[in-house]
Amino acid sequence: MRLPVLIFDIETLTDLKSGAHLYGLDLPDADLEQALIKLRRQESGMDFQRLALHEIVCISGLWLDEQGGMKMFSFSREQHSEAEILTKFLSIFDKRNPTLVSWNGSQFDLPVILFRAMYHGLSAPSLFDQGEIDQQKRYNNYQNRYHHRHVDLMDVMAMFNGRNFQKLDDIAHLLGYPGKRGDGAYHVPEYVRQQEWQKLTAYCEGDVLNTWLVYLRWSLLKGQLLINDYRDVIQRTIQFLSTQPQHRDFLAVWRETSQRTEFTSIDFLSPTL
């Protein structure tokens, strides 16, 4: 496992202003949202908006450094505009070149970040350079599907075959991890409308944590982690989460779900846990 590692996830809403501009609509926001949904259904047969119309309201990440230290962060609309969220996230790549890990990041998160960064006139060569500036990135960059600087777990675990794509929630449950807690519904628009920022960041960070745990199992499968190292990182993750009050629920659910699979059932066997 090449350190440092950054596991990330984004949460989005439909950008009503851009949608109105794109389709030439002059409607109140409540009517505009419904009109955009209907137009999207006519275009594609689904409600899921085209990527360029996804406005980012939160980016969360888990950082693991070369010494094994962990740090969780979230940039949300509670304190930052979308442009500020993007600027803060993109600045990470100006300072370091981490292994980037996501679930469906190559088809959703990174393209959305690209479109929204362009919308705000931002520059992000450290993330999007494919060798034009740094020749080393010609052979290992964040965009190439088969490079390892960005590991899209959904894609690599499907062996790059879209017919094999799985949901993060399903794989997390299968492996004995929490997955989505609660009713599993998508509440992000309501969190933003009600300004429930802690719930928003906890939701996004929960996806990051599930992705991290699946990535560790993937690294074990690939031989990038030996079993003793894997167990050590799992224990360090548990210890880290025990210091994070906002993830007390995640840790409690993990303790319970770990008992449903034989391999994961020993995650909490240590008497100190």
Automatic annotation (TrEMBL):
GO terms for molecular function: nucleic acid binding. Gene3D superfamilies: Ribonuclease H-like superfamily/Ribonuclease H (3.30.420.10). Signal peptide: none annotated. It comes from the Bacteria. Residues 47-254 form the Predicted 3'-5' exonuclease PolB-like domain. This is Predicted 3'-5' exonuclease PolB-like domain-containing protein. It comes from Acinetobacter kyonggiensis.
